[in-house]
Amino acid sequence: MTRKAGAADPSIYVWWIGAEATPGGLLNEVRAHTGRVFGLTTRLWRGQERPSDAFDPARNQSSSTRILEWLVTAGPGETHKVLAVTDLDLFIPVLTFVFGEAQLGGHAAVVSTARLVPSGSPIARGGRLLAARLTKEAVHEIGHSFGLVHCDLVRCVMSRSSSLLQVDAKSGGLCQDCWTRYLDLREHSGGPHDEGTHPYPGR
Ligand SMILES: [Zn+2]
Ligand SMILES: [Zn+2]
What we know:
Layout: E1 12-16, H1 24-38, E2 42-45, E3 55-56, E4 61-63, H2 64-73, E5 81-86, E6 90-91, E7 100-102, E8 108-112, H3 127-145, H4 164-169, H5 176-188
């Protein structure tokens, strides 16, 4: 059977679900960068809905896992990837905080700006550094949603990051091995093979 070229390609939707007003410039950077890295169409999703049961008042943080569960039914639907971006601090029960979380090989991912800016700074003052950090964490979580696991190369965007030092040490792109794995995973999930250029940036 011949598949129509591009028919099964997922799009990546970037969705602001934070408390502050939508930081349009920042979201557009995330959208453009993730599109370049994964070679897919990326769009902004402008839904006004917000997860209602993710906030934990005892911790003053939001459960990233509950946000992911909510994202499966809210937003653009499971044939696409959805990356939620928030300014609320995220946690999973065993950790004090997370930069983000994703469903491994799934549909949804979430990242937060909360730990990527100096404490108390509004997003607007995060500048280039925040944009660089957020785009890396966005690519990392979307990578997980395609099924990529952690990489041992510290410069690869799929390397584990639990501190800002680790975030700043990595590049914004996939290493050769992760790129090859990504193409393989995408092919097996129904997307057509893409002879795109290798996205590991030289920075
Ligand atoms: Zn990870
Ligand atoms: Zn890698």
